[in-house]
Amino acid sequence: MSTRGRRPVRRSPLPGYKACRNCKAIVPEESDKCPVCGGTEFTKDWMGLIIILKPEESCIAKKLGITKEGMYAIEVL
Ligand SMILES: [Zn+2]
């Protein structure tokens, strides 16, 4: 089995947005600071988009460690 089968994602699912490397929040490209965790490291290589409205009631939010409502990437590459 090849270990090189995974293709890099060249285009984010949502043009004009990037994902925080720390908490996976999706923020507009022009932002230089994450509104959720205050992080400053971002990537355009992210996959999947999830919108969390009520983190306290969402098992997905708990699984991903999300405590604040907003848009998040499911996977940051
Ligand atoms: Zn963040």
Automatic annotation (TrEMBL):
Protein's recorded name: Transcription elongation factor Spt4
Entry's family note: Belongs to the archaeal Spt4 family.
Residue ranges annotated for the Spt4/RpoE2 zinc finger domain, each copy included: 17-77
Function: Stimulates transcription elongation.
UniProt KW Metal-binding keyword: yes
Listed NCBIfam families: RNAP_arch_Epp
Annotated InterPro entries: RPABC4/Spt4, Spt4/RpoE2_Znf, Spt4_arch, Spt4_dom_sf
Pfam families with a match to the protein in the record: Spt4 (PF06093)
GO molecular function: DNA binding; zinc ion binding
Gene: spt4
